[in-house]
Specification:
Length: about 500
């Protein structure tokens, strides 16, 4: 017989409670400190069995997302007469070009997505688009990479590292994964382990990322071999010797259930844990220095990251797609029919509208280079939607994973940091992301909650978004500014 759903749930519950660490496809080990904690407090196991746990992925797309029109008119200026030259990211209020920087407090369901954001149409119903978010000043330039995931004064670590370190009842192969692909400006990484410029290491190689998240793919016993639970036996004996009768009884009840799981593993075909199937993705080392393979590298990385979340190997990740001011090539088909240039030799220049032989081609390369980045995000969303949640197999992984998307710039050409691109997708069940009730997505201009004001209007500092996201994960960011209301049900 195969392992029952209830038995798998128990094992997954133990893993989620912090006592088990992933070693591969549904293989877990016990450690001494976790066993001791279970003996004196069984609440973690009970909590883990009640439902899915919140997970979060921060996605950073390089060099802005086209939040200004090609003529770069300010908020009070007229939009371009050609709709094809209007800003391409922020959703419109009913009709293209009708909302503005000053529409603070605007909150609509079923927003009209712009040319770039419409690439994410399949995830509209799970999406909240935000407007009115800014970095510390209106023109941080490419230096925004060191502030886009943290507090304005850079006095703390970035929010991904903080959540990974402080998340309660959390044992994982990696507490906060940092991965993606940078082919230029390797110092322009967005994740920081401390104040100032204490950069975290970033894994660019998908096979190395896989090895770090799934260090042992052979954890299960077959035909009398050693079992993954065996290394814990000595610790178990020593722990029981020093326990009170009540503590020993609690531990024994856990061990009886674990023994049954072990028997199930040994006596029949083993089903993988729900949603967990660690498979090494297609990838060749020679691709790393080949710009034509950037899409393939990121496809493999996305697959590994989604699998790690599905297997409980992590609950926090940052996925950086490109570096600020990245001047290496990205390859795409700008016209969709093979008739135009199949790449831009400088992604940064394309963001600045400096590539192309004439106005029309300049516009196309600007727009389609941004589409290339957003489609790398969409590939990750597709991967998350395909997996089952490790704790609630009836749900998709995306139901319990909040994907927060932004950039280090709002728009590449003038290098603005105001009116930053921001969308939150997924996490509607574990986080309570407020996407409205129409099943058609939501757009909210949160400038009316702004903490600073200038000639453009009110701005919400991006660190307040991170404090709000941290609260949805059950963590205090430690940042000084208060959270924002209306993003998550019951927070702010």
């Amino acid at each position: 017989m195969s392992i029952s759903v209830s038995r798998r749930r128990l094992l997954l519950g133990l893993a989620a409670a912090g006592g088990l660490g992933a070693l591969g496809a549904s293989a877990y080990y016990l450690n001494r400190s976790s066993l001791a904690r279970w003996a004196v407090d069984g609440r973690e196991l009970i909590g883990a069995a009640q439902g899915g746990k919140p997970k979060v992925v921060f996605v950073i797309l390089a060099d802005g997302m086209g939040t200004l029109s090609m003529n770069q008119q300010g908020p009070d200026g007229p939009p371009p007469t050609d709709p094809g030259e209007r800003q391409i990211w922020h959703p419109w209020d009913g009709e293209v070009g009708k909302d503005s920087f000053r529409s603070e407090g605007l909150d609509v369901e079923g927003p009209l997505l712009a040319m770039l954001s419409s690439e994410l149409e399949p995830y509209r119903s799970r999406s909240l688009y935000l407007r009115g978010v800014s970095l510390p000043s209106n023109y941080e330039g490419h230096g925004g990479w060191n502030k886009c995931l943290r507090d304005s004064r850079m006095e703390h670590a970035s929010i991904d590292h903080i959540i990974g370190q402080q998340l309660p009842n959390y044992a994982a192969t990696q507490k906060a994964v940092f991965c993606g692909h940078i082919s230029h400006n390797p110092g322009s990484r967005v994740s920081f382990a401390g104040a100032g410029l204490v950069l975290r290491d970033m894994e660019r190689n998908p096979h190395r990322l896989f090895a770090s998240l799934f260090p042992d793919q052979n954890g299960r016993r077959r035909n009398g071999g050693k079992h993954v639970f065996d290394p814990a036996l000595a610790d178990l004996r020593e722990l029981k010797e020093g326990m009170s009768p009540r503590e020993r009884q609690k531990l024994e009840s856990h061990l009886d259930a674990i023994e049954q799981v072990q028997n199930d593993l040994d006596n029949g075909p083993v089903e993988p844990a729900p949603g967990c199937d660690p498979t090494l993705p297609e990838f060749e080392e020679g691709w790393m220095d080949d710009n034509r393979r950037r899409t393939d590298i990121l496809t493999a990385t996305s697959s590994v990251l989604a699998t790690a979340l599905a297997c409980g190997a992590t609950r926090v990740a940052t996925y950086q797609i490109g570096a600020s001011s990245e001047n290496n090539a990205i390859y795409f088909d700008p016209y969709g029919d093979g008739t135009g240039p199949t790449f831009t030799d400088n992604a940064h220049d394309a963001a600045h509208q400096l590539r192309g032989s004439g106005p029309e081609e300049i516009r196309i390369l600007w727009q389609q280079s941004r589409v290339w980045y957003v489609n790398r995000l969409k590939a990750l969303l597709d991967d998350l939607a395909r997996h089952q949640d490790p704790d609630v197999p009836e749900d998709s992984l995306l139901d319990h994973t909040l994907v927060v998307v932004t950039s280090e710039l709002a728009d590449g050409r003038p290098e603005t940091s105001m009116d930053m691109p921001m969308v939150m997708i997924g996490g509607t069940k574990s986080h309570g992301l407020n996407v409205g009730s129409s099943n058609n997505g939501r757009f909210s201009h949160i400038g009316d909650q702004g903490d600073r004001t200038d000639y453009i209007g009110k701005h919400v500092s991006i660190e307040r978004i991170w404090t709000t996201v941290a609260q949805s994960m059950g963590v205090d960011s430690g940042y000084s500014l208060n959270p924002v209301s209306g993003i998550f049900n019951g927070i702010g």
